[in-house]
Design brief:
The chain is α/β, with parallel strands linked by helices. The chain is 34% helix and 19% strand. It has eight helices and eleven strands. It starts with 13 loop residues before the first strand and ends with a strand. The structure holds zinc ion.
């Protein structure tokens, strides 16, 4: 467990950075990566997807409207190359880069697959590297792949029997992250190198350059743990109008299940519902609807119970 008042990245020797997409490692942790390595520590980056479901920048840069499976695979290879170029600049050795090639925008669905298809490879990575610090997406991040990446890693960590590493969550697609914040400032030289590393992610700068450059101007910021709500009490009060379409997905070491919101017992009128889970911790729940939407971000996202 990290104490926010005394945390220094240099106190960790083996740091695993978990990136759902190529560029997350740079946006969230380029300064931390450089600080750990400058102090003699080893950083490994674990890339979960190649960011291949990224149609608008691809349409723009490739001047095409229709994107077929071959186009998508080519885009993924391009983004993987950009990731390698950025890690070259950040000084992460080739031997410390792992890429799983899972489908972009498919990490929530991954949780529903057999554990051999996600938990086993993640535990293998943990056993192989034996991190003392894992830097992973914040659970409250509203990009569905980011929240799901947190849950996938936490469930893999629960299945790994070694001394648990310290955890830091990083926000990318969320304004306010609940919990104590840890700022990890970087020197001017490290910040300049972060800018150069971001410039390698040219596909991402095409349509979002302003937003991403503003993002990396900020001091890197982390949350040490996810705040756990009162036992079993869900943190959301969605509009009753949405009731028939709301679903709660529950992910624990025992598996994944989805239940209609309307079947959850109410504490009292107007209160958030409560769920009783006998499963071993950690326990995660996600509120969502089953309505189709062009908006990719989560309205409510995940919470830990
Ligand atoms: Zn991402």
């Amino acid at each position: 467990m990290i104490d926010p008042s005394t945390f220094r990245p240099e106190d960790h020797r083996r740091v695993l950075i978990v990136a759902p997409h190529p560029d997350d490692e740079t946006l969230a942790a380029a300064g931390l990566i450089q600080r750990v390595q400058a102090a003699g520590g080893t950083v490994r980056v674990l890339l979960l997807t190649d960011g291949d479901a990224n149609p608008w920048p691809q349409r723009w840069l490739e001047r095409r409207l229709r994107i077929g499976p071959a186009d998508r695979a080519r885009w993924g290879r391009r983004r993987r190359d950009e990731w390698h170029a950025a890690l070259d600049l950040l000084g992460v050795p080739v031997g410390e880069r792992r890429a799983l090639g899972w489908p972009d925008m498919g990490l929530t669905a991954r949780l529903a697959l057999a554990p051999a298809l996600w938990r086993t490879p993640l535990v293998r990575e943990l056993k192989d590297f034996r991190p003392d610090l894992v830097v992973l997406p914040a659970l409250a991040d509203r990009h569905p792949d980011h929240g799901a990446a947190h849950v996938l890693m936490r469930l893999a960590l629960a299945a790994w029997t070694q001394e648990p590493p310290a955890l830091l969550g990083y926000p990318v697609h969320v304004r306010d992250v609940p919990g104590a914040r840890i700022e990890v400032p970087a020197s001017a030289a490290f910040m300049a190198q972060k800018e150069r590393a971001l410039a390698c992610h040219r596909t991402q700068l095409a349509l979002s350059g302003g937003r991403l450059r503003r993002l990396i101007e900020r001091t890197e910021c982390y949350v040490p743990t996810t705040p756990v709500t009162a036992p079993g009490v869900l943190p959301w009060r969605p509009s009753p109008v949405l009731g028939p379409w709301l679903r709660l997905t529950i992910a624990t070491p025992a598996g994944l299940r989805t239940v209609p919101w309307s079947t959850l017992p109410r504490l009292r009128a107007g209160s958030p519902p409560r769920v009783e889970l006998d499963d071993p911790a950690p326990r995660f729940v996600k509120l969502h609807t089953n309505l189709p939407s062009p908006w990719i971000f989560d309205l409510w996202g995940w919470a830990e119970l």
